[in-house]
Each structure stands twice: as C-alpha cells, then as structure tokens.
C-alpha cells in the first residue's frame, strides 16, 4: 500500500488576471487530499470524491499509462470542500501523481510532477494558468507569472492568518468561469485588459506587504481586488453579502478566492479564530516564514 497527499490552496490576490499574464499570489492551505493505492487485479478508481466525474476517471487512466499501467486500486479522500475554489482538483492531481509514482517505484523531480499534474488539470479545467497545481505541488506560498516557462517564486510571508469561509455552492465550475471570462475578453478586451492590469498591480504590491506582515495594507489590497473581481462579473450576491458581513465583523480585507461564482471567501481579521467560530464551515489557515 502506498499513500501520498497534497494541500489545497487559496489565491490571495490575482485570480483570473493570472490567466492573462498578470502576477498572482497563492498559498497552500493546511487541508489535504490523500490518495492511497493498493494492489488489485486491474487499475481502477475504487473510492472517489464527488468531483471530476468522467474527467477524473479519464485523467487517472491516462496517468496510469504514464506509469506503465500498474494494477492498483486508487482511493481518493479529501479534507477540502470540493469545488469551492480551494484547489481540490489540483490537490487531487498532485496527490495522484505522487501516489502512482510511488506505486510504480518512480522518483519524480518537481518539473516532472508539475508536468503530469498539469495534464490532469487540463482535463478538469481546459486551459488553467497553472497557479493551482503549482501551489499544491510546491506546498509553499508562491508568486506566479504565467509564461513559457512560468515564473514561480517562493513568497516571503512574515506572518499571516486567513479565515476561509463559505459563500455556499458555486453557480458554475472553474472551467465554465474561465471560459465565460475568455468569451467576454474576446468581445471586449478594451474593458477587461485594464482591470486585469490593476489586479496584477495589487498582487505586485501585495508581495512587499506580505514580507513585512502589513495586515492593514494587505486588507486594503484584498478589498480592492474584490471590487475588481465584481467588475469582472465573477462575484455573486452571496459572496458580496458575506463580504459585507465579514467587514462588519471587523475583517480588514475580504475577497472571493479561486474562480468565483460562489464558493470560498478569504478574510483577514485580527482575531481569526473568533471570527471563524461565528461562521458555519469556516476554518483558519496560517503561514509564517521559518
Ligand atoms: C482558479 O483557482 C484560478 C483562476 O485564475 C484560473 C486559473 O488560474 O487557471 C480563476
């Protein structure tokens, strides 16, 4: 029996704009997807989370080919809320690659892990920027700039705690949200391009704020980012009203995280555990440079 895991992620600043070549900041969360493989008569997905459907089966079958078609039963378990913008599919991809590599006795370097996880993510999401699986694979806060190759740097984080709360089910998948915005971009790139650039500038400013532990500035940047996400049309009434509620409860900054359309919201608050305790299904994730 072999087992491997990968964390989920939050995007602190820069989702969607990152697909269009702007920088974004992402952090792994302390909740994991675990993939366990056991010897079996044939390769099969024995226990699956309620995401991915056929795409997950196909992506795993393709991955199994890469490892010479091992006879394994694959069990996937997730501590992450699924399809909430917290990187559950990226974590499934990374943990699956790790587990199958272990099962096949193959050592992978980071580049190989990222390439295999990316091809799974493409099956789930079409044309993702790559920020999700890169964060889940490296397991460290990163700044990410899409390109050939992507530019990935480890982020300095003096000290940060975020409350991760739920604005309820999403109205569309990440794939649909990204494709919807792509269609809008093709119709009206002159409106969207400056919004993407503004979001990218917030992410760039955010790097220094994170490094010095400046929560006042980070909160301001998150709030600005949320306004721009609303202008992009990826926020919802449920997200907006949760943002208002959390701000009234003292959050310095609140925004959706991930592709939007509902799902997870992140909040920066001086007493994160107290805030999380007041909300259903909320939890706190923390980061600090060693
Ligand atoms: C989803 O977590 C982040 C998006 O920017 C899509 C992507 O970067 O692939 C919305």
Summarize the structure in short.
The protein has 290 residues and is an alpha+beta fold.
Task: Describe the protein's architecture and organization.
With 290 residues, this protein is α+β, with helices and mostly antiparallel strands. It has 2 domains: 2-154, Ribosomal Protein S5, domain 2 (2-Layer Sandwich); 160-287, Alpha-Beta Plaits, CATH 3.30.70. The protein has helices at residues 53-66, 88-103, 110-125, 131-138, 174-187, 189-212, 215-232, 237-248, 272-277, and strands at 2-13, 24-39, 44-47, 72-78, 142-145, 151-154, 160-166, 253-256, 264-268, 283-287. Strands 1, 2, 3, 4, 5 and 6 form a 6-stranded mixed beta sheet that branches. A hairpin with a 5-residue loop joins β5 and β6 (151-154). α3 (110-125) runs antiparallel to α4 (131-138) and α6 runs antiparallel to α7 (215-232). It is globular. The protein starts with a strand and ends with a strand. The model has no long low-confidence stretch (mean pLDDT 95).
What would the keywords be for this entry?
single chain; 290 residues; Ribosomal Protein S5, domain 2; Alpha-Beta Plaits; 2 domains; 9 helices; 10 strands; binds (R)-mevalonate
Percent strand: 15-25%
CATH topology title of the largest domain: Ribosomal Protein S5, domain 2
Secondary-structure element series: EEEHEHHHEEEHHHHEEHE
Outline, from the CA principal axes?
Answer: globular
Rg of Cα set: 19 Å
**Structure classification:** alpha+beta
Low-confidence stretches: none
User: Multimeric state of these chains?
Assistant: single chain
CATH class of the largest domain: Alpha Beta
CATH-scheme architecture of the largest domain: 2-Layer Sandwich
Give the proportion of residues in helices.
40-55%
Taking the alpha carbons of the first and last residues, their distance comes to 33 Å
Tally of separate domains: 2
The total of helices stands at: 9
Q: What is the strand tally?
A: 10
Q: What's the overall average pLDDT, rounded?
A: 95
Largest sheet: 6 strands, mixed
Ions and ligands:
(R)-mevalonate
């Amino acid at each position: 029996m072999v087992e491997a895991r990968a964390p989920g992620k939050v995007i602190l600043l820069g989702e969607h704009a990152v697909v269009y070549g702007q920088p974004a900041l992402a952090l792994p969360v302390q909740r994991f997807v675990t993939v366990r493989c056991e010897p079996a008569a044939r390769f099969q997905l024995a226990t699956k989370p309620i995401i991915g459907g056929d795409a997950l089966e196909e992506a795993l079958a393709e991955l199994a080919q890469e490892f010479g078609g091992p006879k394994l039963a694959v069990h996937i378990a997730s501590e992450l809320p699924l399809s909430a913008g917290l990187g559950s599919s990226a974590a499934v991809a990374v943990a699956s690659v790790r587990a199958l590599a272990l099962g096949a006795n193959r050592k992978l370097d980071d580049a190989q892990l990222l390439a295999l996880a990316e091809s799974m993510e493409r099956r789930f999401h079409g044309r993702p920027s790559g920020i999700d699986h890169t964060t889940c694979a490296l397991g460290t806060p990163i700044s990410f700039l899409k390109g050939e190759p992507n530019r990935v740097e480890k982020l300095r984080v003096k000290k940060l705690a975020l409350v991760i709360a739920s604005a309820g089910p999403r109205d569309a998948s990440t794939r649909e949200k990204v494709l919807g915005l792509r269609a809008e971009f093709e119709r009206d790139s002159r409106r969207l391009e400056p919004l993407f650039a503004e979001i990218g500038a917030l992410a760039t400013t955010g790097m220094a704020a994170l490094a010095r532990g400046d929560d006042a500035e980070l909160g301001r940047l998150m709030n600005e980012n949320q306004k721009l996400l609303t202008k992009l049309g990826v926020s919802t009434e449920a997200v907006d009203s949760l943002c208002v509620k959390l701000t009234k409860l003292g959050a310095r900054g609140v925004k959706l995280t991930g592709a939007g359309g509902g799902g997870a919201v992140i909040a920066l608050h001086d007493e994160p555990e107290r805030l999380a305790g007041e909300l259903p299904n909320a939890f706190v994730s923390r980061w600090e440079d060693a």
